[in-house]
Amino acid sequence: MDRKLFYFIFSFCFLFGGVFQLLGILSYTETNILLLLLSCIVIYKLRKFNLGKNILLPSLFITTFLISTFLNSVKLKLWAPYILYIITPIIVFYFVQLYFKNHDPNDIFGMILKISFIQFPIIIFERLIYPIIQPHLPRIVDKTDIGFGSFFMASDHVLGLFLNLIIFTLLFYKVKGITRLKFTLTIFYIVLTLLILNTKISLLILGLILFIYFFKDINFKKYAFSFFIAMVVFLTITTTDLSGIVTSNLHDIFSQLNENIDLVHATKIYENSMGNRLISLYVFVNSPISWFGHGPFSTFNPYSKIFLLGGDFGQWLWFYNDLGIIGVLAALLLILSLINKANKSNMSKWFVGFIVIIYSFVFNSFIDFPFFFIIFYFSKLHSKLENQK
Predict the structure, then answer these.
(1) What is the separation of C-alpha 304 from the centre of its chain, rounded to a whole number of angstroms?
(2) What's the pLDDT at 36?
(3) Full DSSP string of 25-65
(4) pTM
(5) How far apart, in whole angstroms, are the C-alpha atoms of residue 169 and residue 384?
(6) d(Cα 78, Cα 299) in Å, to the nearest integer?
(7) pLDDT in tens, 298-337
(8) Distances (CA, A) of 293 to 66, 85, 91, 162, 310
(9) Which residues contact 311 (CB under 8 A, 6 or more apart)?
(10) How confident is the model at residue 24, as a pLDDT?
(11) Is 131 in contact with 349 (CB distance < 8 Å)?
(12) Of 118, 109, 116, 104, the residue nearest 3 (C-alpha)
């Protein structure tokens, strides 16, 4: 029973959950709550859920949340749903840990690769069909939210994380059944898929992975392989219609990095809920430290779907505004401690921890079930592969 339920949860996360969201059958929050409830059933059936000595860091996060709620007199209807941000990483951690305690994580890596292979054609199909289906959708779907593959709607960052960790696994670990030809074709294909995603941060993470691989152990074969992949990707992009998508993505990255704005203007934009992440970060850095924040959901109203401050998603920015610097540190310590417990591979542990921090700047990761499934699954897989060396 737990095996069948696991594969249902896995398939819902990465194959058909996004369709339910696109058709308006389930909202993003409802989808994540459903997955949490199903994973709790698996945990209960295994009857091994025990925080034990790991209770301290979750308690610190919860205490910070309660203090901020009390200091800012937050109403029940606002602070109650905020609990999802606290329990999601903990439940997903135990779900993945307990299931793979009795099952080999290598068993589903072949399925992981197959899922990565279908993303490119699905993304292209979504973008081609969007103008046709957009008027008939039950909810307004922005063009930038299209291109999420078979993942959750608008979850291009999670898809980028998924693809990047596959590349990281293939480059730094010996995976059974992966021939040199399959290795080369897979790297090329996934890099090409990443280049057409609407997630600039994933391109920067990809660059970091390739940089580490290139300089970790320098040899001629590695130079030749890297040059070959780069040339094939370059020729594929320049000789197809993909060049416009890739050029647009790269232009957006550099234009955001070069953006200049003064503090007064930035503060006005932020308070009018029209700023992006860089604006919010700029205002926070140049303002007095907020210790316990302005209370849960002071950034965004989950019922009206309206931004109250800022104007963009980003977990650390939300936590800072809602729970203050103490809340950010408590959340950071919690997730890093869970990764440290799940991952016994030193290199992977540091890298996975780093990219969780980076991705959490650009979207609300602490309420995203698939995000933490990917993090803890690959942590478990890398631990297994490290022991097989």
Answers:
(1) 25
(2) 95
(3) SS-HHHHHHHHHHHHHHHHHHHT----GGGGHHHHHHHHHH
(4) 0.86
(5) 12
(6) 11
(7) 888 888 778 776 556 788 888 988 999 999 999 999 999 9
(8) 12, 16, 25, 32, 14
(9) 269, 270, 273, 274, 275, 276, 279, 280
(10) 85
(11) no
(12) 104
End-to-end CA distance of the chain: 33
- What six digits make up the tokens of 319? 């936590």
Q: d(Cα 199, Cα 148) in Å, to the nearest integer? A: 10
Tens of pLDDT along 13-33? 999 999 899 888 998 899 999
How far apart are the C-alpha atoms of 74 and 100, rounded to whole Å? Answer: 39
Position 148 pLDDT exceeds 80: yes
DSSP string, 304-316: TTEESSSSS--HH
CA dist., res. 192 & res. 237, Å (int): 8
Range list of H helices, 217-314: 220-238, 242-257, 263-271, 277-285
| Higher pLDDT, residue 130 or 251 | 130
Block residue for tokens 């924040």 = 293
Helices 84-99 and 2-11, packing angle to 10 deg: 130
Tell me the β-bridge partners of 300. 307
